[in-house]
Write a structure and sequence with these properties.
mainly alpha; globular; about 450 residues; about 60% helix; Glycosyltransferase; two-stranded antiparallel ribbon
């Protein structure tokens, strides 16, 4: 197997190109030539094995059928190489199926109306002048005078001002800026005030023109206001946050009293799902840390609901759906914020992160990279060490360095329609993971 290890190491660049969507034009698409190359993977001559592997890697989709037919060959050398060559295709298929499920289940998210099924590869050159401070400067300049961030002004396909204002506010709070202290305390105060003005008498935050609140949007508002309340300890902000939390747990959560369940996009939804439930769990936990009153029955309800979504095959976005790596990330994150220890979740977290793909490649996307960042940080150890460096490099390399957009990120791939404020906020939250939340478990 030593020669196999050498082959795989030599071919790593070619494999990375396939996974990132940078497949070069095939040297040939002749099926007989491709079958001959597959046989050559088992050659005694090392150079021939390497040459065959690299040519098959460059052939991209044209080689997929031939590779698939060779998966069960008796030659162990060929079988292992074929499995490695097929992995990018399988990862891409799984990511595409994830996105079809997300589109079908959730519809527009964070301002993105249509979810693309590919992600542009990251830029490769990193230059000085990047990081959280540069991003906060851009966000501060992009904020409107009344305190909100205009999602459509910066590329969103749908009105997502409430969600994106909440995300931007979380970035400033994560860096230590509050309504009382910090260079950007004015930005924080205006954002908190704007969110408070969007709130109805019953505590629900409703988009202009909408008849009812969106659970995902409201959970994000709840999270932002809870963190603002906890950090500044201002009575007015705590009262506003408590009001938002009361609506979330008393009126929006599915079920009643001791029969509470998960959270959905609609109030008292008969179809609760994992994304909104996860954001609600984090909001409730943040509210509890901030000293707000969270009914124990709400935590009990989400635990019951989460138990319905997980089995030996993995996590689902909703009952009856197929397991999904992205759902696995959200499920692990929910469990972490509910107090499960890293030892209890290690296998689930490892499976979710490995299934999600290598950060920064065509199989990953910005929002779920943020979720994966939180999950791996909370898990710590080897899983976090493997993820951390790739996450930072991928994000920092893509940050704008010049012109009016300096410090920000452009939206891409599945979230292209969410715009620049969304992309900037989510990437900042990834870079703040080291100090935004303490590790919940040792």
């Amino acid at each position: 197997m030593a020669r196999l290890a050498c082959l795989l190491c030599s071919a790593i660049v070619s494999a990375a190109c396939v996974l990132c969507g940078e497949t070069a034009p095939p040297a040939t698409v002749d099926p007989e030539r491709l079958r001959a190359l597959v046989r050559q993977l088992g050659a005694d001559d090392y150079d021939k094995r390497v040459a065959a592997y690299e040519e098959l890697s460059r052939a991209g989709d044209a080689a997929r059928g031939v590779l698939g037919a060779a998966r069960d060959t008796d030659d162990a050398e060929i079988r292992v190489s074929v499995a490695r060559l097929l992995k990018p295709f399988l990862t891409r298929d799984r990511a595409n199926e994830d996105w079809r499920t997300i589109e079908r289940t959730f519809g527009p998210l964070f301002g993105a109306r249509q979810m693309a099924l590919s992600v542009e590869p990251p830029a490769q050159d990193a230059t000085p002048g990047a990081g959280v401070e540069a991003a906060l400067e851009w966000l501060a300049k992009a904020q409107e005078q009344d305190g909100h961030w205009d999602s459509r002004k910066y590329g969103a396909e749908e009105d997502a001002d409430i969600e994106q204002t909440s995300l931007a506010l979380l970035c400033f709070l994560g860096a230590g800026h509050t309504e009382k202290v910090g260079e950007h305390k004015g930005n924080v105060k205006r954002a908190v005030a704007w969110l408070a003005q969007r709130m109805r008498a019953d505590g629900a935050v409703v988009r202009d023109g909408a008849d009812e609140p969106d659970g995902l949007t409201h959970a994000l508002v709840c999270l932002a206001l809870a963190e603002a309340a906890g950090m500044a300890n201002r009575p007015a902000t705590k009262a506003t946050a408590q009001k938002a939390l009361n609506y979330l747990t008393q009126s929006h959560q599915s079920g009643t009293d001791d029969e509470k369940g998960g959270f959905g996009r609609k109030p008292q939804s008969s179809e609760p799902e994992l994304l909104t439930t996860t954001l609600a769990v984090i909001a409730m936990q943040s509210a509890k840390v901030a000293g707000l009153k969270v009914p124990p029955s709400s935590f009990d309800g989400v635990i019951r609901f989460l138990d319905l979504l997980e089995d030996k095959a993995g996590w689902r976005f909703a009952p009856g759906q197929q397991p999904s790596p992205r759902a696995g990330l959200l499920g692990c994150l929910s469990r972490q914020f509910l107090g499960w220890g890293s030892e209890d979740l290690y296998k689930q977290a490892q499976r979710a992160v490995d299934g999600y793909g290598d950060v920064g490649t065509a199989s990953t996307d910005e929002f779920h990279t943020y979720v994966a960042t939180l999950v791996t940080f909370q898990q710590g150890g080897e899983l976090w060490q493997r993820f951390d460096g790739r996450m930072k490099n991928s994000i920092v390399q893509r940050q704008e360095r010049d012109g009016p957009a300096a410090g920000s990120w452009s939206a891409r791939g599945p979230w292209k329609g969410a715009g620049r404020v969304f992309a900037t906020a989510v990437n900042v939250l990834c870079l703040e993971v080291y100090y935004r939340y303490l590790q919940l478990q040792p």
